Amino acid sequence: MKAAKRKRRASSRPINVDASDDEEEAGPSGSSKAIKQEPGDDATQAIVIKDESDEEDIKPLIHAPQPLRAPRTPSPPPRQSHTHQEQIIIAAEEQDSHELPLDVEPRAEAHNANFANTPDAEPPPEDADAGAVPREDIPWPEPFERLEEIFKALNTVYSFCSARKHLATTFDTLRSSVEKLVGRELEVHHIAQLKSLLPDLINFAYVDSDALEVHLDAHKSDASRQKRAEQDEIYEEAARAVREEGSTYEASLARPSGAGSEVLPSVAALQAESSRSTHTRGDDYVLLFEFNDGTLQGAKATARGRRSIGMRRGPNRDANKKQPLRRLYDIPSTSSMKKLIDKRNAKFESAVCELLAACQAKGEDSVDLLVAAANDHVPLNPETAERPKGETPRKKRIRLDYLMNHPDERPPIKDVIDEFEGEPWWCDQVVPGGRKTIPAREARFDGLTFVLTQELVNALWATRKIEEFFLHQAEALNYLDEGLNVIVSTSTSSGKSLIYQVPIVRALETDLNSTAMFIFPTKALAQDQKRSLEDLISSHVGLAEQGVMVATYDGDTDKELRLDIRDRANVIFTNPDMLHQSILPNEHHWRRFLRSLRFVVVDELHTYNGLFGAHVSLIMRRLRRMCNALGNRGVQFISCSATVANPREHMQTLFGITDVQVVTEDGSPCGAKEWLIWNPPLIDEQDPKQGRVSAYAEVSKIFRHLVSRGVRTIIFTKVRRTCEIVISQIKKDLLLEHRHDIVEKVASYRSGYSAQDRRKIEQDMWKGSLLGIVATSALELGIDIGSLDAVIMLGFPYSISSLRQQSGRAGRRLKDSLTVLCCDPFPMDQHYARFPEDVFEQPDSALSVDLSNDFVLEAHLQCAAEEMPLHLTDDAAYFGPHLASLCRTRLVPDDDGFYHCRSELRPNPARQVAIRGARQVTYSYIDATPGRGSRVMEEVEIDRAIFEAFEGAVFMHQGQSYICKDISHDMRIAQMVRADVNFHTRPRDHTDTDATETLRIRALRGSESRAYFGKVTITTHVWGYFKVDKRANILDAVDVDCPPFVRHTRGFWLDVPMWVVQCLVDEGIQAAAAIHAAEHALLSLTPMFVVSLAGDVRTECKLALKERVLTSTRKRPARLIFYDLPGQNGGICEKSFEHLDGLIRIAVAVIEACGCAEGCPGCVTSQTCAYANQVTSKAGALAVLRALIGLEPFVRQDGAAAAAASPSSPQLGIDENPLSATIAEAPAVPLASDATQEVEEYDERLPPSLEENLRRLEGFARMARDGEVDQRPAMGKSLLFSE
To answer: Residues of 869-879 as b/e, b for ≥16 C-beta within 10 angstroms?
Structure first.
C-alpha cells in the first residue's frame, strides 16, 4: 500500500455517500453534490465533498446492453501528503461556493488582504510543519479570534459536563452555558467550523435520543439514587473550586465584559437542559457534541480477553511514587480538568496557525475557505433536514442490487484496497510489510484409472459443471478405487468434498444397501456437506428414485426421526459425540448400518488433536472393532484437512491403521489472495497514552467499505459477546448512513442460537441473500457458505491453524479474495503488527494424540467392554499394550477370559465420559418482553451464564440488546426483556485458583525448590457489575448477589520464595507480572512433553485492574499453578509433573535465546491468556524460573550474576511496595489423608532431539548476552521448534 504521511486527516479524494431516497438535485453543469457524515465513534472523521456526474453514475445500470457490467469505482490517483488544512483548501476548491454565515461583522476587502492576498508573503519551507508556526508570526483575522472564544468556552463547559458521566453533552445542554461565557448566541455553524478545523478531535452528529437513556427507571434503586446525589454534590464542589479561580479561567476564555458571572452551570441547570433537549420536543434524534480525545482520568472498563473487566490504566512506572487511589465516583481535580482544557486549546491554536500558513502560501482567503469547508460538517437531522445532493441512497441501492444479482461483476479486490485511501478515516492503518499478495494458481488436471457411469458423469455436470478432475482429486479417487485409505491435505476450497462423494455414489450404484458415515466436528459443516451430497444424488438418474436416504443424526435431530434413520438411512452425517454416546452404545440397533458400512469420512482432521484427539482416536477404534465383530472388514477411511504438517502419521494414529496414502499436490485453481495486517491508529499520535481507536469501530469501517462495493464479507470474532457487539455496531453505523438496504443483508452466526435460527442463517448464506456475516469459529471450518470474497479477523485467532482456516473461507469460487487481520491493542496482536512476517511464514503445527494416557484409555475401555466384552488377545490390536494391565486392575473379569465394564458405570458408561469436557448444566434465556410472547432464545452453559445472567445485566442476541429482569438459580431460568440502551454491562468478579490438597511432592535437580501435585479448586465470585458506555467509561457500579461457581480438578504448583519476590521488587519488576509470564512460558512448552492442546491445561491469569494497585486486600500466593481443564480428567498435569525439571530448563533457554524486548508468542505471551497478556514481564519470568532451578535470578550482560537477595536476606518493604501489593507468601498446602511427605526424586533424561535443542538454545543465549546476535529468530523458525 502506498506509503503516506502518518497523520489523522481527511482525504481529498471523493467518496460515494448518502442522500435522500427520492431527491436527486443536479448541481451546476449537470453535476451533483454528495455529502457524507461519518457516524460518531471513537475516531470522528473528516467530511469531504465530491462532484460527481449523476448521468455517468446511473447510466451503466439502466441503459447498458447485456452483458451488463457493474459500475466500478475508479482507482484513486496517487496521493500527495497534505496537511489537514491544505486539504480544506483542496476540498473547498472542488465545490461550488455556498453561503454560510460566520460569526463576524461584515468585513471590508482590505481586511481580507491582511492575511490571504499578501503578494510578498513567502511560503514556508516544503518540509516545515505548518502546525508548528508560532501564533505571533501570523496575524489572526477577527473571525478566528471570535471562534477561539467559542472553542474555549465550549471546551470548558464540555469538560465539566463530561466529568459527570450521566449528563448527555447535547448541543442544547451546552449552548446556554457557552452563550453566558461568550456573551453572544451559539449557532450550529460555529461548531461546524470548529469541526472543519479539528475533524478528528470533534464529533458533532445527530443520534437516536433513546440511545442517550443510560438508566432505566425500573432499575433506579435507592443506592443508585444516593450515589448520583453524592456525585452531584462532588460536581458542585468542583464547580465552586473553579469559580474561586474565576479570574484564571476568564483570562483563558478571553471573556468579554458583560458575560455571565457563572463560570460553570449548576447541576440542576445542566440536568434541566439535558432533559429538555431529549424529551420536551419528542424528537427522535438529538444533536450530540463530543471530543474524541478521551475523557479525564477516571474509572474505565475494558472487554479485553475472556471475561476481563476493569479500569484501563497503565502500570505505575515509578515504584516509589505514591498515587492516590481513584474511586468510581470521584470527580477529576480542577488541575487535571484545566490540563485537558489547555491541551485542547493548544490543538485549536495549532490548527488555525496551520490553516493560516497554508492560505498565506497559496494566496487564499482563510475565512472564505473555512466557511466553505464548514458546509460539509453541518449535521443533518435524519428526520427533518433536507438531504444533500449527489449520490443518493436510491442510486446506491440500484448499484448494490445489481451486484447482489451479478456477484462476478464486483470490482477487483486490488481496486477495493486502493479505494481505502479515499476514505475520510484512512490514515495508513496497514502496517509496514503488512500487505502480501499470494498470486493466482492455474488448474492442473489428471485422469482416472477406472470408468464412471454415464449417470454419474451427467450428475457431476448438472450439479457442478465438472468434466475432468483436478490432479489431487484424480489421485485420491484412484487410491480409493484400489481399496486404500486416503488423506488429502490440500488448500481450502480445493474441491476435497468431491473425493469422498464420488466413491459413495459409486458404492450405491452397485449396492443400494451400502452405507456411509460422515463425521464432522460441527453441525454447520455437516449441514453444508449433506446438502451438497443430496444435490449430487438427486441429479443421478439411477439413484434419484431409488429411495436413497441421506440424513443428519446429531443432537438437533427429532427423536421421532431417529428410529427411521437407524432403519433406513444409507448415509448419515454425525459427529464424534453422537458416535460415542448414541450409536456405539446402541450397536444392536445399528447392526444393519454397520454391516454394510463402506466408507467413514472424517473431515477437518486437524481439529482432532491433543486430549480431544485421543478421545476421538479411541472412539474410531471402538467403531472398527464393532464392524469387525459384525463381519465387516472392508471399511475405508477418508480424511481431509488443509492445515496438517504430518498428515500420514496423524491419520495412522487416529484410526489405528497403517495403509494410508497421502495426497498433497494441489491441482485446483485459485484466484489471487490479498492479505492486510491492519492496526487501528492511535487516537492522538502526540499522546499515545490515549490508546488506539476501537477495533470494533475499525472493523465496522472496513466491513462497510467492502459490502458497499458488493464484496461479500465475513467477520470472525473470538468470543460470542464480541460477535454480538460487532453486529450491533455495524447495524447502527449502517442505519446512521441510511443504508437500510445493507442492514437487511447482514446477520450474526454463533453457537448458542437455536437450531431453527442456525439453519435459517445457513440457508440464507447459501442462497446468497446475505451480503455479510459476523461469526465465531462456528463457521471457521470448511463449510461452503456461498461466494465469500473477504474475511476480516477481529484479533489474532487462538492458533496459526485457525487463522489460515478462517482465511480460507474467502475466495471459494476461484475469484480474487481478501483477508484482513485487524489487530487488538494487546501484546499478542501488537507483536504481529510489529512483525507481520510471522503471520505469513509461521508453519502449520504437527498434530499428535497420546493413546498412552491411562485416564482416557480406561474410560473408553469401560465403554468398549459394555458394547462387547474385551479379550486381551483379540483386542490388543485396537487398544495397544496398556490393555492388559488396565483390564486386570480396572475392569471385571469372567471365567472365560473376557473383561466387562464395572457395574457402577452400567448400563451406559459412555454418558460418564465427556470427550469435550465435563457436561454442564444450562440456563434458559427467556424472551419475556411484553407483547411478544415468551420464547427460549438460548440455552447457555453455567460457566457462561454466571457472567451474563444477573439482574440488570445487558445481554445481546442477534445484535439486539436485552436486560435481565429476573433470574432463578434454582430453576436455571433468566427472564430477558428487549431494551434499547447505549451501555453494556461488565461483571465485577474475581476467580481464585487454589491448591487445596497435596498428593505428591517432587524435587527439582540442583535446587532446594519443590513441586507439588494435588487437588485444585477454582472458585469464581460475581458480586456486581459496571454499566459501561462505548468508550469504556464506567457510568455506574451495581452490586448483585450471585452464588459462587466452584469447580474441582487436579494440577501441580511451584511456590516462589519471598526472597525471589524481593529480588523482583528491587529490580523494579512487578511480581505478579513475573509469575504470570513464567506460567505462560511453561504452559506453551507443555506439549513438548505431554500431548495436549492449548486449553487442555490452564493457569491463573492476571488482570491489570487487580494487579496495578497501590494496596490490595486480596493477595494471591506467590505461586505458579497449573490445572487440568475441569471435567476432562485428562491427566496431563500429572504427566507434566514428572517432566518439570526438563520443562523449566528448556523454558529458561527459550526466554534467554529470544531476541524480543518485552515478550512475544515465542517466549512468555500466550494466545489463550484470559486477560490478553496485559500483565507480563519477560525479565521477571526468566528470574523466577532461574531461581526455581537453583540459578541466580538476574545475570548481567557480561554473564556475571547480579547482586541479589538470598534466602536469608531481609524481606523489607514487600508488603508496602506496589510492585508486590497483590502477592503474599504461599502457604503450605495440607497433605491428603492417604499421601506421604516422601519427596520423589526423578532422574530425567530428555529425548536426544530435545537435549540437542536445549544445548543449541543455551549457546544462542550466550551469544545474545555477549552481543554477537542482534537479530531475533523468526517465529516458526526458532531453534527449538524447527524439528
So the answer is: bbeeeebeebb
Reply yes or no on whether the pLDDT at 1 is more than 60. Answer: no
Cα–Cα distance between 417 and 75 in angstroms, integer?
A: 9
How many Cα atoms occupy the beta-carbon half-sphere of 138 within 13 Å? 32
Closest CA to 548 of 517, 511, 583: 511
In three state form, how does the secondary structure of 546-584 look?
CCCCEEECCCCCCHHHHHHHHHHCCEEEECHHHHHHHHC
Asked if residues 706 and 713 have their Cβ atoms less than 8 Å apart, the reply is yes
1102 phi, psi to nearest 5 deg: -105, 135
- Are the beta carbons of 704 and 737 closer than 8 angstroms? yes
- CA dihedral (103, 108, 110, 113) positive or negative: positive
Interacting residues of 92 by C-beta distance below 8 A, sequence separation 6+: 368, 369, 372, 373
**Strand duo 1097-1099 + 746-749: pairing:** unpaired
For residue 568, which phi and psi values (nearest 5 degrees)?
A: -125, -20
| Residue type for position 1225 | E
- Residue 210: pLDDT band by 50, 70, 90 thresholds? low
Q: For position 545, what pLDDT does the model report?
A: 84
Helices 142-163 and 246-253 meet at what angle, rounded to 10? Answer: 140
Q: How much is the pLDDT for 679?
A: 94
Residue-wise pLDDT for 1193-1209, tens only, equals: 887 555 445 444 434 33
Higher pLDDT, 77 or 181: 181
Residue 106 confidence (pLDDT): 36
Peptide bond into 78 cis (omega under 30): no
Task: Match 495397544 to its residue by C-alpha cell.
Answer: 880
308, pLDDT greater than 70: no
**CA angle 874–875–876, rounded 5-degree value:** 100
Beta strand spans in 256-310 (E)? 285-291
Beta partners for 678? 430, 822
The SS3 of residue 846 is: coil
pLDDT band at 642 (very low <50, low <70, confident <90, very high): confident
How far is it, in rounded angstroms, from Cα 831 to Cα 1156? 10
Q: Which of 769-778, 843-852, 996-1005 has the highest mean pLDDT?
A: 996-1005
DSSP state of 105: P
Q: Tell me the C-alpha distance between 873 and 1013, whole Å.
A: 36
In Å, what is the CA distance from 729 to each residue of 45, 697, 960? Answer: 16, 7, 10
CA 1270 from centre of chain:
33
Q: 3-state SS of 886-907?
A: HHHHHCEECCCCEEECCHHHCC
Cis omega before residue 67 (within 30°)? yes
**983 — phi, psi (to 5°)?**
-135, 165
Contact 751, 776 (CB under 8 A): yes
With a threshold of 0.70, does the pTM exceed it? no
Three-state DSSP at 16 gives coil
What cell was used for 1068? 523494579
Between CA 1003 and CA 1140 the distance in angstroms is 9
Q: Report the relative pairing of strands 1223-1224 and 1116-1117 from DSSP bridges.
A: parallel
Report, as an integer, the average pLDDT of 340-356: 90
| pLDDT at residue 1056, as a whole number | 94
> For residues 428 and 680, is the Cβ–Cβ distance under 8 A?
no
CB 914 within 8 A of CB 1126: no
pLDDT grade for 372, boundaries at 50, 70 and 90: confident
Lowest mean pLDDT among 415-424, 753-762, 1045-1054, 1129-1138: 753-762
Rounded to whole angstroms, the Cα distance separating 85 from 359 reads 9
Question: Nearest-CA neighbor of 848 among 648, 689, 575?
Answer: 648
